[in-house]
Design a protein that fits this description.
With 323 residues, this protein is α+β, with helices and mostly antiparallel strands. The chain has nine helices and ten strands. Strand 4 and strand 5 form a beta hairpin. Helix 1 packs antiparallel against helix 2 and helix 7 packs antiparallel against helix 8. The longest helix is centred in the first third of the chain and has 18 residues. The relative contact order is 0.11.
């Protein structure tokens, strides 16, 4: 089954990354087994016991739409109870009815839940509070980690645009406020360039180097910035490394017309961090401290090595910036 194969891949990824079969890794795999059992039961089994959110009553009514499409809806809300924490509620319509591995809608939910559960507690990964399932939808609830740094793909054909904050349902269609979160991104790039670069590297290290995941739609609106300067991968999530990825890394330059490419891994995102106009290039260009900009610029050569085996790991880049 897809889920069993993915579980084996995650186990192998940990060994390759040097983690071995330690207790923490085995606990992560055990949580994935609970997730599998819940999804496969199609509402007949209780959600995983370690989840804090297991029913609609654990979340207040949505306060603002973040994203809406034919299948998926993302709503900003709050937890009920004493914490009242700000959260994001995601709802995905199951096109085939009961949850079924192999159904596109079900797989979208599954891969994102695997990403959130396997990397629980890692920097740059939203906290999965839990979720619930109905016969027509899968719901999951994560921490609210700020707003997307921009919208668009960050390319010449599809440039970045500053994102509007979530709009309450009653106000949809109204003109959004003029204050955009991208202004805070640019402010941090100007005033704290190394700290912002470190925030990016910590996020990318979590889902790439440590999780073995590759983002299949690498664009600025997938990433959020919070009030503490932390970058998180929030929207859509990741898929384990296969053959389709929106990256400029040279190892994917020989993709066939049908999108088939040679195998690749998370090191494509080392290249992305160095070349995407909205990550290191934007930080370097805006940095007021030109000495800090020069430190970051020195990393670009190794990060853009044509052979991915010659690129530094995110951990090595973080050590360089910490020294």
């Amino acid at each position: 089954m897809v889920r069993s194969a993915l579980r084996r891949c995650l186990a192998l990824a940990c060994v390759v990354a040097g983690g071995g079969a330690d207790v923490a890794h085995l606990e992560r795999l055990e949580r994935l087994e609970r997730l599998d059992a819940w999804l496969a039961s199609n509402t007949s089994a209780a959600p995983p016991a370690h989840w804090a959110v297991t029913a609609p009553s654990d979340v207040r009514a949505g306060s603002g739409f973040v994203l809406e499409s034919g299948q998926k809806q993302v709503v900003a809300s709050q937890l009920t109870g004493t914490s009242g924490a700000q959260v994001i509620v995601k709802a995905l319509r199951k096109a085939a009815g009961p949850f079924a591995f192999g159904d596109r809608a079900s797989d979208i939910a599954y891969f994102e839940l695997v990403y959130l559960e396997y990397l629980r507690g890692a920097p740059g990964v939203p906290l999965l509070h839990g979720g619930w399932e109905t016969r027509s939808h899968v719901f999951w609830v994560t921490s609210h980690d700020g707003l997307p740094i921009a919208t668009g793909k960050g390319t010449h054909a599809h440039p970045m645009r500053p994102p509007a904050p979530p709009v309450p349902r009653r106000a949809r269609g109204a003109r959004p406020p003029k204050r955009y979160y991208l202004a805070d991104y640019d402010r941090r790039a100007t005033e704290e360039p190394v700290a912002l670069a470190i925030a990016w590297l910590r996020c990318l290290r979590s889902f790439g180097e440590r999780g073995g995941f590759v983002l299949t739609d690498f664009k600025p609106e997938q990433f959020t910035l919070d009030s503490r300067g932390r970058i998180s991968l929030n929207h859509h999530g990741c898929r384990y490394a296969d053959c389709a990825n929106a990256t400029g890394a040279p190892e994917l330059a020989a993709c066939e017309a049908d999108g088939a490419c040679a195998r690749f891994d998370w090191r494509a995102h080392v290249f992305d961090a160095a070349t995407r106009s909205w990550i290191f290039p934007r930080i370097i260009s805006l940095a007021r401290d030109r000495g800090a900009a020069k430190r970051l610029k020195k990393l670009l050569g190794p990060m853009t090595a044509r052979d991915p085996r010659d690129r530094p790991q995110f951990s090595a880049l973080l050590r360089d910036l910490a020294s």
